[in-house]
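FIELD: query
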Amino acid sequence: MNIIHIFADKLYAIRFAHESEDEWNKLNKQWTDLIWLEDFFEANKTDLSGLTVEEAVIQTMNEADLLLDTILSKVNEKGWLNSVFKNLHNQEYKTVVLSKKKAKRSWLRIYAIKIDADVFLITGGAIKLTHLMQDRVHTKVELIKLEQAKNYLKENDVFDEDSFREFELEL
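FIELD: result
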C-alpha cells in the first residue's frame, strides 16, 4: 500500500498494492467513463428503481462532477472536510480513532479514514444502489478496503495527524 497526497495536506488517497492508481483518481475515471458506467448499470439494472441505464449514467456523471469538484474546491475551508465526511454507520455517534467515514451525493459514496480533524485518507468509493453495503459485492469490497487501510495505519502507529506526518516523512 502507498499513501498518495491529493490536496493541501488534508486529502490523501490509498493506492493498494494490486492497483495501478490511487483510489481518488480511480473514482474520478470510473464515474466519468461512459462505458464503465454503462457496464456497471447494466450489471445492476434491477437496483435502478425505474431509471433506465442511460438516465442512471447521465445522473451519475452529473453528480460525480458536483461531488468531486466540490470536495477539491472547498478542501481548504477550515472544518469543511469534517462536515462533508460523515460516519460510515449512521447510528455511530461517538468519536473513534481512525474512524470510517463517507461523503455522499445521491447514490455516490466516497469512503475514507479520518486521521484527524480535516485530514482524510480516501480508501475507495462506490455507486450504492441498495440500503446495506453487505447487499452487493462491489460495496462489500469497499468495507474490506476501509478495514485494510485502517489496519495499515494502525500497523504503522498512525493514530492522529502528528503520527501521520511522521509516517509520511518515512515514506
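FIELD: remark
The CA atoms of residues 110 and 125 lie 4 Å apart.
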